[in-house]
């Protein structure tokens, strides 16, 4: 692919062999002819046929690039490594389970184009969640607690579809599970964020890699850590004179 991309779509995957091709086809349908783009899939040491599907599709999809972890490292590391490999100044992320709708990416780009230059993240907001009742309940309470502690004015920080500035993201402090706190971390760095209503779909294939209990146990520790980072922040803008 010779044209320099203006957008990199980063998709972390772990054991999503049946969702890879349909999602890539949807990304192509949403973006071809609208913006020069690339697709960066990061395979987190899948145990099924995910990598084989990606290798096959590379031969026919010139926009597709594949990064493979040599050891399983989790979603946050997969997202960060995808962003590091990306060639475009702006990044769109999607969850590999295909519950995010790639057709929403142009919507996020339109929001970016009318926002001021201090807004560096446009976070998807799943207004009509298509998860199980227990997952929606757990997410509702987790979002309420997080919003109260971090004061990030973000109704749905866990939505996988986001659009953000690559350099601003790579300047954020890195830690495992950081992908769940990106709006708060962006605000800590001095940038504005906007939540944008997006579509959400039922999982068509595969199974979730997380449990409500597992998320809760990790979330308590992470919330305390992110809250500490925000309280200890003393960043300021600079200008060259």
Keywords:
17% strand, 7-stranded mixed β-sheet, 241 residues, 8 helices, alpha/beta
What's the mean pLDDT score?
87
- How many strand elements? 7
Low-confidence stretches: none
What would you report as the Rg, rounded to the nearest angstrom? 17 Å
Largest sheet: 7 strands, mixed
How would you summarize the topology of this molecule?
Blueprint: E1 7-13, H1 17-31, E2 37-43, H2 50-58, E3 64-68, H3 75-85, E4 90-93, H4 105-114, E5 119-126, H5 133-150, E6 162-165, H6 166-170, H7 182-188, E7 192-198, H8 212-231
Parallel strand pairs: 1-2, 1-4, 2-3, 5-7
Antiparallel strand pairs: 4-6, 5-6
Describe the 3D structure.
The structure is a single chain. The chain is α/β, with parallel strands linked by helices and 241 residues long. The chain is built from eight helices and seven strands; from the N terminus they run E-H-E-H-E-H-E-H-E-H-E-H-H-E-H. The protein has a seven-stranded mixed sheet with strand order 3-2-1-4-6-5-7, with helices on both faces. Strand 1 (7-13), helix 1 and strand 2 (37-43) form a beta-alpha-beta unit. Helix 1 packs parallel to helix 2 (50-58) and helix 5 (133-150) runs parallel beside helix 8 (212-231). The protein is globular and about 50 Å long. 38% of the residues are buried.
Compact description:
The protein has 241 residues and is α/β, with parallel strands linked by helices. The chain has 8 helices and 7 strands, in the order βαβαβαβαβαβααβα.
């Amino acid at each position: 692919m010779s044209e320099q991309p203006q957008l990199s779509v980063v998709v972390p995957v772990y054991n999503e062999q049946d969702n890879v091709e349909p999602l890539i086809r949807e990304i192509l349908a949403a973006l071809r002819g609208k913006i020069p783009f690339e697709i960066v899939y990061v395979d987190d040491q899948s145990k099924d046929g995910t990598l084989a599907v990606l290798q096959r599709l590379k031969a026919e999809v010139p926009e597709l690039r594949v990064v493979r972890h040599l050891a399983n490292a989790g979603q946050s590391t997969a997202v960060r490594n995808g962003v590091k490999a990306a060639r475009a100044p702006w990044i769109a992320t999607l969850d590999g389970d295909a519950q995010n709708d790639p057709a929403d990416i142009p919507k996020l780009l339109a929001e970016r184009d009318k926002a001021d230059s201090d807004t560096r993240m446009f976070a998807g907001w799943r207004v009509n969640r298509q998860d199980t009742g227990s997952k929606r309940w757990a997410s509702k309470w987790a979002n309420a607690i997080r919003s109260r502690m971090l004061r990030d004015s973000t109704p749905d920080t866990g939505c996988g579809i986001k659009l953000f500035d690559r350099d601003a993201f790579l300047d954020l402090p890195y830690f495992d599970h950081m992908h769940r706190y990106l709006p708060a971390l962006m605000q800590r760095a001095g940038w504005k964020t906007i939540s944008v209503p997006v579509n959400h779909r039922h999982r068509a294939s595969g199974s979730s890699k997380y449990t409500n209990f597992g998320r809760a146990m990790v979330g308590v520790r992470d919330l305390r850590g992110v809250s500490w980072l925000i309280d200890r922040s003393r960043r300021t803008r600079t200008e060259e004179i």
